[in-house]
Write a structure and sequence with these properties.
This protein is of the alpha+beta class. Helix content is 40%, strand content 13%. The protein has one domain (9-204): NADH Oxidase, CATH 3.40.109.10. The protein has helices at 9-15, 30-41, 60-80, 83-89, 97-100, 126-144, 157-163, 189-192, 201-204; strands spanning 52-57, 103-108, 147-152, 171-180. Helix 1 crosses helix 6 and helix 2 runs antiparallel to helix 6 (126-144). It starts with 8 loop residues before the first helix and ends in a 10-residue tail after the last helix. The mean pLDDT is 88.
Length: 214
Amino acid sequence: MIDNQKMSLYAAIESRRDVRAEFSGECVDDAVLQRILTAAHHAPSVGNTQPWDFVVVRSPETLGAFARHVEQQREAFADSLPSDRKDTFDPIRIEGIETSGTGVVVTYDPARGGEHILGRATVDDTGLFSAVLAIENLWLAAVTESIGVGWVSFYDEAYLTDLLDIPWPVRPIAWLCIGPVTEFQRTPDLERFGWRSRRDLSEAIHHEKFGRRD
């Protein structure tokens, strides 16, 4: 049954933000998290393989260890930047791992469904794309619950695989910080801090052939 009191899909898409500094420090309610994960699990998938799993992480020790690893990766990236871009990057927070109180690690299992997967024979990446659709479902459901999500990508995949005992050939494809927020920023952080502005839709639409904008 659809709750008509929830915000519209278009409003959720418009309101969605990659949350970093706005986590309140409270932990997301278990029932709310279950609804969000249910929405993620209803994502479409190639061959109905449902190649995702969700590792819910709340241990302070694990959150702290991952946060320290991410900070090291952030510093390495900052050191690689030219001075002008480093100045722009410095005030941008890249994670809320500990303040969110909950991490959901989305994994992708390329072996799920067996050897012959309907729809994946010629485009193998459709399996990975399916897991990403689950992430988008999760994110939009979280917005309708007034729950923030932050996607952490400054990590070494082998480190995270070892940290969470993820078996081969399963891959962690996203660490999502999930928790209540004090606010949702009106403007995304990367625009707000001058890292990169949003492209106009007209630049992204092509007609009949790539590059043709009538």
